[in-house]
Design goal:
Layout (H helix, E strand, L loop, with lengths): L2 H26 L5 H35 L1 H25 L12 H7 L5 H29 L1 H30 L2 H11 L2 H13 L5 H30 L4 H19 L2
Helix pairs in contact: 1-5, 1-6, 1-7, 1-8, 2-3, 2-6, 2-9, 2-10, 3-9, 5-6, 5-7, 5-8, 5-9, 6-7, 9-10
């Protein structure tokens, strides 16, 4: 791999393994700060929405216009953007709601609701569901970081923040079922490994095809994936944890932070 590819892979690995941080929070604390999670999830959503429209989609359009002309490039950008949304929608629909990590789950509520049994099965299925969701996220982070490390770093941070509650969702039922903190932490870490696997798949499967056309399509699809995740998961879940307007402050702060970071790299 080139140095830029290693940097992109490292950022993706960081984002994926943050599920382990969620697992660590779950086994070391009795209750999670709802205000912190609300702000963090809102911040992630703000970052991902702003960077998708202000940077990634714009670069996708430029690349596709270079390859296909202005009119063809504009159409391809729109189609790839909504194609990314459809892809993550299909993945989301194929996963049963009870094991779907995109269904909000508070630590306290999870422990109470799951006393009735089959906790281990739920934890493992949740880990599998998260892995399935994280694969395209890993590809998205890797592609963005490969094209622009500054943008990739921002996306990696946003995804890392939103992976924390997913690690919690894995660790809580497994810890309750087995009493083993080690198992709970291990499975929360393992569920995040799909992100770097997505990055590797993108590198080895697409590197021979990298061109303005493929980069443009991939970038537009990445923007669609991130906007969908933000609107379907991050912001609604932030509102579930909210105790006022904290989630919206987080969204606004994330957008502002992303805007300033992009201006600093002009």
């Amino acid at each position: 791999m080139s140095e830029s590819a290693w940097i992109a892979f490292g950022l993706t690995l960081f984002a994926g393994l943050s599920t382990g941080l969620g697992g660590l929070m779950a086994i070391l604390t009795r209750a999670t700060s709802k205000k912190f999670l609300s702000a963090a999830l809102g911040f992630s959503g703000g970052v991902m929405i702003y960077v998708s429209f202000a940077e990634i989609l714009k670069k996708a359009s430029l690349s596709l216009s270079e390859a296909m002309g202005e009119n063809g490039g504009a159409w391809a950008t729109v189609l790839a953007f909504f194609g990314g949304m459809v892809l993550i929608l299909v993945i989301d629909r194929l996963i049963p709601a009870i094991e779907n990590p995109h269904e909000p789950l508070l630590i306290e509520d999870g422990a109470r609701k799951n006393r009735e049994g089959k906790l281990m099965r739920m934890g493992l299925l949740t880990a599998l569901a998260i892995a399935i969701h994280n694969f395209p996220e890993g590809l998205a982070t890797f592609a963005a970081a490969l094209y622009d490390p500054a943008v990739g770093a921002s996306i990696a941070l946003a995804i890392a923040l939103h992976n924390i509650p997913e690690g919690i969702a894995v660790a809580v039922p497994i810890h309750a079922a087995t009493g083993s903190r080690a198992q709970a932490l291990l499975h929360s870490f393992l569920s995040g490994l799909a992100e770097p696997l997505g990055a590797l798949a993108g590198y080895f499967l697409l590197r021979s095809l990298f061109s303005p056309f493929t980069f443009g399509l991939l970038f537009a699809a990445v923007a669609g994936i991130m906007v969908f995740i933000s609107l379907d998961e991050l912001i609604p879940t932030a509102r579930e944890y909210d105790t006022g307007h904290v989630s919206i402050y987080g969204v606004t702060g994330g957008m502002a932070a992303m805007a300033v970071s992009l201006l600093l790299f002009l």
